Amino acid sequence: MLLSPRLALKWLGTMSWLMALLYSNMVSSKAAPLPPLAADNQQPSQIQIDGKGVLVLTREWQYRLHRGSVIIIPPPGTDARAQGLPGYLARQLSVLGWSTFSLTPPPAAPKLNFTTSVAAVNEAGNGQMHDTGNQLTRQRSDGDWQQLQQRQQHYLQQGLAQLQTSAQAFTGKQLLVAIGPSGPLLMQLLQQQQLQAPDLLVLINPYTEPTAANDKLAALLGQLAFPVLDIQSPDANPASLGTRQQRLQVLESHPERHSRQQLLALDLTQQSAYERCLQLINQMGSAMLPAPALMSPNQQP
Q: Which one of 133, 228, 283, 299 is least enclosed by Cβ atoms within 10 Å?
């Protein structure tokens, strides 16, 4: 059947319009590209601890909701600029609506000095050996550990007291995140009420030295009367893995505190393990918010 020229032109016009509409819908229905990892909007500053400047990195929230503030304490001996998990959490939590503060942690325990004194060197040719081959490696005494940890706790108390005061300027909940040996140091300060109790304490692979102190970690955890999120990875220090079950039992014995322990399926060398930590912290922290206030990053809290 042949169409008249007039009808043919009308049909072509209709088809052109339909094709244009279909193309427009296809373009508009394409998913927007996922945003890249958070740009590092860090703002370096210094606080004073015992008269010395200590680096702190602050990142303001970048989300339509402001959930609160998070203070992150990496393991002793590292830096506020530490990459890996501490840096990842500081950047990505700000994208999810948390203002983050990264504190330079206290110095780690110095390495033991195994240098032999001149007086102790055997005289040449006397053939005497004092090491039988089965002696224990030299270790710090309990008194040495206690003095070291007191210095580290003093450092943290001075630094965190200042950051907690700064965090009070923000609405929402206050979270403390401590990684590795920083966790037990922080737990001691909180148990002794030398710091303001957070709305949520996050411990990632907590452990301490010496062994006797590490064995008391679960009991110390039971004395904290606020929610705790205990995250354990399979590649943690053996001292942390060794107390995992006891810590779990303590947390489960106080259901009114709404604490929990979460086991990671992957090592903390994996990006997906970082993402899981981020998800756990954000979910548990957000669950405590009564009704998040709608605020833009340009508004003053």
A: 133
